[in-house]
Amino acid sequence: MVLPYGRQSINAEDIKVVEEVLRSDWLTTGPYVTRFEQEIAELAGSPNQAVSVTSGTAALHVAYAAAEVGPGDEVITTPLTFLATATTASMLGAKVVFADICEDTGNLDPRAAEAEITGATKVVAGVDYGGHPIDAEGLAAVAKKAGAYLLEDAAHSVGGSLDGTPVGSLADITTFSFFPTKNLTTGEGGAVVAKDADVVERARRFKGIGMVREPEQLRTTDEGAWWYEMPELGLNYRLNDLQAALGTSQLTRLAQFKARRQEITDRYNEGLAGIEQLRLPAHRDGAEPVWHLYPLRITDGRRRELFDHLRGQGIGVQVNYIPVYWQPYYADLGYKRGMCPTAEAYYEQEISLPMFPDLTDGDVDRVVELIRSFCGA
Asked: Contact at 8 Å (CB) between 74 and 67?
C-alpha cells in the first residue's frame, strides 16, 4: 500500500454536517457559506468578511481582479510556487516578473523583489512556501515603495501567524486554498480576505459574475425586485453550502491539525538530524507555521535517486515546485532558465515527504529509516 504524500482528514462530524445540508433547502450558496466566510475572516483577523470561492486558483484570480490588475501592469512573484500564483495574473493581461527566493525558507526574497520594481508594478505576491509565512515586513516595505498591493498566497498556511499576527492580516490581500491536502478542506475551495473594504467588494462582485442587486449600486431603480445589473465582467466562482459546511466543521479541528503537523515535522527533524547531505526545513524566529509540506533538500545531486527509491518503497513523495518560468508557456514568451538561481537550486534539491494529520509516528519512522539508509547514515 502506497503512503500518500498528503490526504484529507474526514471524521463522522464532517459527514454529519454535509448530510444535514443535503437534507436542507440549500445546496448552493446559502447560510453555511455566510457562516464559513465569517469564521475564516475571524481566523485571519480580517476587518472584512472573507470572500469564499471555488478553489485556491479562483482565489488568486479574484484577488488580482480585485486589485484591478490588467494590461500594462506588472506582478512580481516567486517562481517556487504552484502555477496559479503567476498564471491568474497573466490571464488578466499583466506581465509576471519572477524574483528569486530566500535560500532558507524558499519564500520570495524582499531584496530580489525590490530589484524588480518598475513604475508598472501593481502587486508584489509572496507565497507561504510549505506553510512558513512570508517576510511580511520586508515585502510590505517593497510594495509600499512601489505603490503596489502586497498579496500573500497563503494556500499552504491558513491558521499560521508571524510575530503574533495571523496569516490573513499580514498583507493587503491574502488568498487561501482548501484543497484536500491543505490544512483544512472544503473538497475544493478557497477564500480571499483584504484590509480594504473596496477590494473585498470588487472581489465579491468578480466571483459573482459581476452582478449586483443592491439598490444603491443600481443604475436603473424603477424596475421590480427581480432587477439585477452587471456593471463589470466577472465569473461564477461561488462556493456552495455543501463545501462551506464541510469547511465549517473542519475549522473546529484546525488547531488539532496544526499541532499534529508540528509533531510530524519535529519527528522528521529529529530523525533526519545530523546527516551531512540533507537540509531540513527552516523555521525563522517569530514564525508559527502550519506545515503543509515537509520540504527536505538533498545536496549531493541525488534527488532523483532518492525520489525513485522512496517511490519504489511505496512512499508517495513529491517535488514542490518546478520553477514556473520553466513551463513552455512562459518559455515561449522569452523567460529564460537561470533567471532565479536560488529558486532553481532549491528545486533541484527539494523532495516533499508525506505530511498530513493522520500520518502515524510509525509511518514517519519508516520514511526516516529509508532516507537514513539511502544516505548511509
From this structure: no
CATH of the domain at 281: 3.90.1150.10
> What is the C-alpha separation between 125 and 134, in angstroms, rounded?
10
Dihedral through CA 241, CA 242, CA 247, CA 248, nearest 10? Answer: 60
* 365 lies in some domain: yes
pLDDT, tens only, 198-219:
999 999 999 999 999 989 999 9
Query: What does DSSP assign to residue 210?
Result: T
Parent domain of 230: 12-251
Instruction: Report the length, in residues, of the chain.
Output: 377
Specify whether the CB–CB gap between 136 and 171 falls below 8 A.
yes
| Cβ neighbour number for residue 306 with a 10 Å cutoff | 20
Considering 198, 219, 251, which residue would you say is the last residue of a domain?
A: 251
CB 69 within 8 A of CB 117: no
pLDDT tens digits along 316-325: 999 999 999 9
Statement to judge: residues 224 and 277 lie in one domain: no
Asked if 296 and 350 count as a contact pair (C-beta separation under 8 A), the reply is yes
| 312 shares a domain with 169 | no
Residue/partner pairs of 319-323 with CB below 8 Å, 24 or more apart: 319/347, 319/350, 319/351, 319/352, 320/129, 320/130, 320/293, 320/295, 320/350, 320/352, 321/80, 321/81, 321/82, 321/347, 322/347, 323/79, 323/80, 323/98, 323/347
CA–CA gap between residue 156 and residue 178 (Å, rounded): 9
Distance (Å, rounded) from C-alpha 176 to C-alpha 159?
A: 10
Rounded-to-integer distance, Cα 107 and Cα 126, Å: 7
CB 18 within 8 A of CB 242: yes
Count up the domains in the chain and report the number: 2
**Mean confidence (pLDDT) of the chain:** 97
The rounded Cα 374 to chain-centroid distance in angstroms is: 32
Shared-domain flag, residues 197 and 330: no
Same domain, 43 and 144: yes
Q: How many CB atoms sit inside 10 A of residue 313's CB?
A: 15
